[in-house]
Amino acid sequence: MLQAGLGALILLGIYKFMNSKSDYKVDGWIAFLFILAPGIIMFLLAAGLGLANINPNYAVWGYLLYFLFPFAFLKLSLEYETKPALKYSIVVPIVAVVTEIPFVLLSGASGA
What percent of the chain has pLDDT over 90? Predict the structure, then answer.
């Protein structure tokens, strides 16, 4: 949850920088949703793969959700055109991975 909040703040700053004169606006709740929803789905995917005794490394493909979910949400729900939807959704996986790294390092350091 903390990672989603941090990622949403970073995304919101990037979106404000990207669309200073644009008609397309993304607020903080939507930015929070772009990080939280794929994260929950990835967690459930990794848990399901673990329960099915399938290599959990396949859950890495779930990072595509960080691109696909925001693009589909902007394009289908908010009726953005394709180019602005792509522009906004390309940034989400980068921010998600960058904000996840400190939490993974902290959890790995505390388990040692």
Answer: 36
Number of structural domains the chain divides into: 1
102 falls within a domain:
yes
Strands (E), the chain: none
Asked if residue 21 is part of any domain, the answer here is no
Question: Which residues constitute the domain of residue 61?
Answer: 2-16+28-110
pLDDT in tens, 21-69: 667 678 889 889 999 999 999 889 888 988 999 887 888 888 899 999 9
Nearest CA-CA partner of 88 in 19, 10, 4, 7: 19
Sign of CA dihedral 46, 30, 90, 12: negative
CA angle 67, 40, 78 (to 5 degrees): 45
